[in-house]
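[audit] Reproducing an earlier prediction to check determinism. Same input, same settings, fresh worker. If the tokens differ from the archived copy the diff job will pick it up downstream; this log only records the rerun itself.
[audit] input (426 residues):
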Amino acid sequence: MNNKNNDHSICVVGLGYVGLPLAVEFGKIYPTLGFDIDDSRIKELSNYRDRTGEVSYDQLKSAKYLQLTSDSSALDIANIYIVTVPTPIDENSVPNLELLKSASQTIGTYLKHDDIVIYESTVFPGATEEICVPILEQASGLKLNDDFLVGYSPERINPGDKVNTIRTITKITSGSNAVAATKIDNLYRSIIDAGTYLAHDIKTAEAAKVIENTQRDLNIAIINEFSKIFNCLDIDTESVLNAAATKWNFLQFKPGLVGGHCISVDPHYLAFKAMQAGYHPELILAGRRMNETMSIHCAHQMIKAMACKNLTLHKSKVLVMGVTFKGNCPDIRNTKVIDLVRELKCFNLEVDIYDPCADPNEVYEAFNVELTNTLVPASYDGIILAVDHTSIKEMGQQFIRSLGKDPHVLFDMKYLFAKNESDLRM
């Protein structure tokens, strides 16, 4: 792992949606080690294949200084460690930092004088210094700022987005002291075309990250509530939003299911820390409740629409098109489409799920649900367009309609087609 940039030897810990693109960019110019505990992940990446679809074959090949391993003993060659492991919530919506703690423990084992540890995983304000640093110090026997440095640079990866990529999004940076802040900022500036923003301190950077997705969650929540109201008033929501968007400062959001590993998770991190400090957040949790109920609401809207067409619900067949948490992305983590499917099944409906982007094995392992890979004409009493994959939209309204019986209900949850081309919309 030698090249002209031999002052830096970087190790990226965690090679998912966040870590892999970062490792590839660093691996183009610095000696970089990509570490993941999943040996199968290392094997596929070593063959230049990324199951997430975030990094192409050519991009992986271009990272000529990148090495990949699942052997933690290789970490001792690095002097900069970047942590990009998942930070989910548990069944009670409490932050689960076990992977972050484990990564810190592993790094601490190999931490040396003058090394730098940078965290990118989403956390609540204070987590880096209050939880991660003590683990690093205990495992290494070293002291922060005297022997090693720490920073926080929140990830801003948008899965499936080929326009707003890691190089084109401004990177927030921070450090445990002025020296750390400067070194970390310079490091990221060397790979980020859009530049960096040096935050006042680590807590500020942590807080900035967690409110980005919390704000988006709340914006979607109010649009979802608008959608429920307009549904009661028999007004088309998209038409209202298009009209309102003619004002320059109207924020353009659409109603929908809010799943995934960011927007539906991050607000709970801020709420958790706020309650620890003695403050009970009202709006944040209200927005979460609104968005968490949308799957059930959509299922009930479908049931009502089928009843209005005098369709017998018992054993009726419904096709749900899309199961991932967002369009053009294979990620199924915390997808709310599954909640929609389960609610439909509560009414004794037979539900098929079709998704060309999702891995059938992952879906079965996660939800005990088998995807269908065949679409037979005149098979369904109801069709729900749940995810806006380009491949689904390109099928066209006429083909999708052909999959339904006569009569049937087409529920366009994602506004893929014009309002007169479906029977029901959000």
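[audit] rerun output stored. Observation attached for the diff report: The chain has 15 helices and 13 strands.
[audit] end
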